[in-house]
Amino acid sequence: MIFETHCHLNSPELYSDLTNVINKALDAGVKKMLVVGYDYQTSLLAVDLASQYDFIYAAIGFHPTEIDNVSKAEFDKMFSLLSHQKVVAIGEIGLDYYWIKDLAKQQKQKQFFIKQIQLANKFKLPIVVHNREATHDCLDILKQHTPIYGGVMHCFSSSYDMAKEFIKLGMYISLGGPVTFLNAKQPKDVAAKIPLEKLLVETDSPYLSPHPLRGKRNEPANIVFVINMIAELKNTSAKQISEATYQNACKLFHV
Ligand code: NI
Questions:
Q1: Separation of 6 CA from ligand 1 center, angstroms?
Q2: Separation of first and last alpha carbons in the chain
Q3: Segment 130-148, tens digit of pLDDT
Q4: CA 128 to ligand 1 centroid distance, Å
Q5: How far is the CA of 7 from the centre of ligand 1 (A)?
Q6: pTM for this structure?
């Protein structure tokens, strides 16, 4: 039983091959998937997929690199979907200082992040957080605007010390493909040390294919590589990792 907590079946790469991708995931043992939006169109598509398949759930939100041309009307229209019963989180939201170096734009990212956390609190939903090279600002914002219904640090790539700080705020830590990379020190360290009850697993597909599939299009079925690596690092079975992370995700997303 696997809960794939972060995939983009709503991306052109996976949507164009949807039936095949879904069947392979189910064959690999995936029982539930969270399809995560990153702008208006992909959020609508996430909701659409969640309406069609009972094992798919949707997160909707504006990714920090996708906030430039969002009108108030679009923002309001998108979040009118928050009461849809298959929308179980707001995401992915957060900060990305890798792609966005402009300080004014980083400021705007913070405002959007905070606005969406407040919305999550209002609608009693958890959040899915994207953080790239902005760990300290991310932590500061979550401290000042704590997500009351928790959330997940998706594809976590910082140190275990930072993971502990996020866990203190009620966040789960999700690991994906990078934990399998041969040169990945921090994700492996986090995997080894993190309490099982705070861990989730994901692919972030079509991105971040695990070793030995790096460079290829990723898909939810490949989550088994992530699970197997974490099991090895924790010196336990893949079954135990799958089941614990499945329970954690069900608890976080109330499904
Ligand atoms: Ni993503």
A1: 6
A2: 14
A3: 999 999 999 999 999 999 9
A4: 9
A5: 6
A6: 0.97
